[in-house]
Amino acid sequence: MTAFEALYSALAPPLLGYLRALTRDTSVADDVLQDTFLQMHRARHTFRRGYPVKPWAYAIARNVFLMHRRARGRRERREMLAEEALPESPVRAADAEIIDRETLLRGVALVGRERCEELLLHHVAGLSFREIAGVLGISEGAAKVRAHRAMAELKRVLGGGRS
């Protein structure tokens, strides 16, 4: 239990930052973080001694996020079908919440999280490209190329580069 608490103390803050960047919702990120540590506990037998813990933990966090996103998509489709059966509501939906974000996160929102995941893992989570390759199941070179392309796209979208 002491070892798991130490692992949680060391990994929770950076994983939470990564998940907040992916979800763009603090409460969802908190839920996904808790599910991540639950999955880490369940999958502890898959960790290989002598290998770094961070890529393993980030891979689990990414998979938990993807499962959450798929489940949310299915739920939203069911709700949409149910909503279509209801009469139109006279009350307008609340405006989208506007939050002041760092330039990187604003650009990621414009470009798309999937296209910027390598940048998030490198610049927000602080993983090396070798670790990113392990998390995403790609080569180190592919992680570098994807990060470079995402950075170029971010610069273009944010007005810092020409296309």
What does this structure look like?
- There is one protein chain.
- The chain is mostly helical and 163 residues long.
- It has 2 domains: 8-88, Orthogonal Bundle (Rna Polymerase Sigma Factor, Chain: A); 100-163, Arc Repressor Mutant, subunit A (Orthogonal Bundle), CATH 1.10.10.
- The chain has helices at 2-23, 26-42, 53-84, 103-111, 117-124, 129-136, 140-157.
Annotate the secondary structure layout.
Elements: H1 2-23, H2 26-42, H3 53-84, H4 103-111, H5 117-124, H6 129-136, H7 140-157
Q: Helical stretch count?
A: 7
Could you estimate the helical fraction of the residues in percent? 55-70%
Mean pLDDT: 78
Cα-atom radius of gyration: 18 Å
Overall domain count: 2
